[in-house]
Amino acid sequence: MSKPIIAVTMGDAAGVGPEIILKAFQQTRLHEEAVLFVIGDTSILNRAKDFVNTDVEIVSIIEPEEAEQVKAGAVPA
């Protein structure tokens, strides 16, 4: 059985949402039950990487199904 594909909204770009998303997507167990992707601006997510001091990869996608090809730990957006 395939995993469901679930969208996660980034929230307010000026808030803590982008930082929380980056930290959450680094948790491998998050990817065990579903394929997740972020609805939001990749430039904001890339800027948030400096705040959380992470090198997590932000992968730009066009279609939700593309998130299935992104490795666990990276952030499809």
Automatic annotation (TrEMBL):
SUPFAM superfamilies: Isocitrate/Isopropylmalate dehydrogenase-like. GO terms for molecular function: metal ion binding; NAD binding; oxidoreductase activity. It comes from the Bacteria. The keyword Repeat does not apply. Keywords: Metal-binding, NAD, Oxidoreductase. Its cofactor is a divalent metal cation. The keyword Metal-binding applies. Belongs to the PdxA family. PdxA2 subfamily. This is 4-hydroxythreonine-4-phosphate dehydrogenase. It comes from Bacillus safensis.
